[in-house]
Amino acid sequence: MTSRSACLRVCLVLAVLMSARAAAVEAEATVAPFPFDTLRYKADQVSVMAAYCDSVRQWVQVLDERARPVPGRQGQVYYGRGGTREDDVRPITYAALVHAFLATVPESMPTQRGRWRQSAIGALRYLADAHVTGDGECVDGGEWGDAWQSAMWTRSAGLAGWMLWSDLDPALRRGVARMVEHEANRFLDLEPKSREFGDTGAEENAWNAQILSLAAQMMPTHPRAGRWDQAAKLWMYNSLSVQADHEDDTVGDDGRPISDWVTTVNAHPDHTVENHGLVHVGYLKTSLALLLEGALPYVLAGEPVPGASLHHAEESFELLLSCMAWDASPVFFGGNDWKSYHSQNTDVIVYALMSLLAGDRRAARLETTALKYLRRIQRNEGGFYNVRRDIEFGGLCATRLIACYLAHAAIGQGAPPASEAELEAACTGVTHLEYGRAILHRTPTKFASFTWGPKDMALALPENGNWVIWPHFQSYLGAFDPPEGVDATGPEHELLAYPVSDGFIAMGRILHHGGTITQDVAFASPAADVTIYVERVAAPDGYSAESRLGAPIGLEYPLGANSRLLVGEFGRRRVVGVEEGDPRTTSLPSSWLTIDDRVGYVVLREADRLNVMRHRDEVRGEGRVPKLQEWISLIGDPQGLALGPDPEWACVITLLGERARAAEQVAGSASLRVQGARAEVAGPGFRVQVDFERGRCVYREDPH
Questions:
Q1: Hey, what domains does the chain have and what are their CATH numbers?
Q2: Per-residue model confidence as pLDDT tens digits over 427-441
């Protein structure tokens, strides 16, 4: 009996192995030739396509210096650590696609194509061998695949293998097809993720859709190709999904209503998304980019692009326009825990595909601007795409540019670019995001915002100001260390914002550390290049601290430069970004400050109290994303902070652009007058009246 059971087990294992091998051979046989014949190289596209290709060529020089042969495995190569973690596998899959692209496109250097082809094949051999469907392992002894993001990694490797299909030997063809088939099959019977708050499922559903759309078009005669196509649309529809989709009877793909496709909610009704506990512009952009990129296999195969790949793309793009900076990288009005604020390198695909797939002329203009800036950043960073300077992120950027190139080659020019004036008109206005708990004010010369959840912060930037100011998580509203014996707790708030004529007003109350500190705040952004912040702070049981992070703003450095000039009552101070030495905090006694005459700040204190600003010089970045994050605290006291039950008032007038030059003059003429719970701020051409008891804030122009 025991012998018979063992025999049955052996037979079962052999049957499973034979079945898996048959499936792999079947997948290999269904791979269609890569549709190079559908790619058109029109004269009107030469410049933009050449720019994308040239950027990828510049990146591959960085990449090739980091190639490592796999010990004991001839013809295999990896990049980075070569392990099984996501940041181990991702750079290898990106490298395979980068080399495959350069080995096949006409603009690449003919003398290098053979070397690039071998590099791509070496990476593909390693990936196919170490995948859970292969017979080998990663250099750390484990396998990769069947992971939360492995479908996204496989998509890059699969596209690389498809482009080089005619150059792959039979064993590698089987390995590539097996990877794509296996990862696509995982999502045939799974339900898309649904998460509106805290951790959106938008980006995960969008990247899982990518392997499905690739598999369906790469292997069009596969028995599961139809199911892959249906699943791709399902996961796309459920990427930027909102609650209203569940009742939407509009006919979508395959004659089915939207409500039949959507089973999830991953965005708020105003199309904002949350991730990492933030209302996160970065994850909105990422989700939209992944969703649009999922249409690429259809474009390459000459098949109709499904409506699913544009589901809520237009609404999401409109939201990005409302916070769009002048360099084609939206402002992170809710903050960004990734410490990266110039994201043209990953955003350009949104603009390219919105132009090509949706005919959006504004997107076409942004594509041109983003491409110009990302090339400047890349040159400034020695071939890398930003200050992260790692091959994982650089590989992601390069593969996004490859998608832009291929989409242009297949479709053509896209929409004619809007004029700068048309783009500015589209970005200008006040956007009240009720569910995203933010209000945005964009004009041709400034951006201002107020956010009241999950982070409480305000921003004021001049034109091109995201190269002057970065969005500090406590911007303007500041923070207080917990009193001794009191546990640190996050602030509780009762805040609101509302549009007014050509601007907005925001105000309310913030309770720090369980109510031990009460902070009433008001923030006004009128049509002019100015904002006014007013606060009233009290501590019923008393509070003291050596210093306070009062009205902080993040200090950014210009592209290609490493210094800023600060001017105030302390004199002139040249601050340097990345440098030798240790981090330090410097006191700057002053009631006014200018930063390179780009932004000016005037601080008004009740009863003419002396004010001390502080500059935090970080000298180098820290963490996985080494972005330099210096800040300036605008409100401070010479002898530390001491609060009691009697409120203390302060005001910050922010002068943007050309107005910044007048900061010293404004400091000598502006006033803060307090009477009970009310205060009036008089500045150049305006008066602001605040009544915290009644919850009123009024801005009035005052030519006198």
A1: 70-186 (1.20.1050), 428-674 (2.70.98)
A2: 999 999 999 999 999
